[in-house]
From TrEMBL:
Region: Disordered, residue numbers: 358-395
Cellular component GO terms, alphabetical: membrane
Topological type in the membrane: Multi-pass membrane protein
Name of protein: Transmembrane protein 184C
UniProt KW Membrane keyword: yes
Main location class: membrane
Localization per record: Membrane
InterPro entries in UniProt: Ostalpha/TMEM184C
Keywords, sorted A to Z: Membrane, Transmembrane, Transmembrane helix
Gene: tmem184c
Record field: transmembrane: 12-34, 46-63, 84-106, 173-194, 206-229, 250-270, 290-310
Pfam family, one: Solute_trans_a
Amino acid sequence: MPSVLRSWRQWIQPVVMLLYGIILVVCLPVLVVYMEHAGTRIKFEAWLIGCVMAFLTLPVSLWEITMHLVNYTKPQLQKHIIRILWMVPIYSLNAWMGLTFPHYTIYFDLCRECYEAYVIYNFMMFLMTTLNELMDLETVLATRTQVVHSCPFCWLRPWRMGRELVQRCRHSILQYTVVRPITSIVAFVASLAGVYGEGTFLPDRLFLYVSVVNNISQLIAMYALVLFYRATKEFLRPYRPLAKFLVIKCVVFFSFFQEFIISVLVYAGVISSWFGVMDASDVRVISQSIQNFLICIEMLAAALAHMYAFSHMPYRDPGQYQGDCCAAFRSMWDVTDVGHDVKEHLSVVGSSVARRLSRKSTQAAGERAPLLTVPGDGRAEPAPRPPATARRSDQ
């Protein structure tokens, strides 16, 4: 048994593909029969196309993830890459499950939306880890030409090159890692309570406010990534950062704004007129199914793009010790670093808010202090505070 575990790199790839083949052969016919007899409102042809695209996407992504595990020579970098690569299978399975069980889409979307924020965080940490292995990033950036803000944040004071720029970019992305799961849970609870109103922009429904918060939070996070790339693109050029950035940005932004546009079409009545349905629940199911169908198709292209942008080839080094399979799998699922960074982010935000509140209360106390007139010039100044302890009369 120990010898089998030590030679896991020789058998892990065929085992993964064999398991995938068994699942495909067993589950797919069962699901086809189920969809034919389920009486679902989703057209069977759309479901079948989405199913085929999803099952073509999974082996591409799983193969690249497995190859990174087989060539796990730089754990600090590759753990972030593997987390990013899991984005495509999760999106694809989420969309396909939404097509199969359209009335439960909101439950599946909760997982996808939380993982979206997790991917953006991991991409930022991948870039920072790559640069910190080469240099003292904050010290080197402090000597570089100042990067100014671009639209729509050109009115902000430039973040000083060095520690301020790095930390502000990191915390700008971490806020999305915190905000997105919170808004997803709020949307989930509001949907159960019947006050979410997905696809409607009415002021008495939470969908409008959740969408605004998500848009603002995601805009800040993606802008921070762009600003960090502008400041470090010269150092990152050998690692093809633009391809990696575009792949992630396209998947996250495209799916997000695609969903937003479909919601606008629902609100404008376009979806109901196209499909000839008037019931609000039917319109919602159809709009969600359109989004899931498009994602199933798009994820195959995304899997191929991820395979190119986050290739395992730079990490192939047969002469380097790569650990056993258990260590590699544990490292892949270990998220203690995320918890530590989120805790630090909340601590920094809490300290900043406390300082601002303390400053405002001090200013308010100064404004309320009684004024005394200074003899001779008519000016007023705050009355002096009494001493902490009064002197005794006998001293």
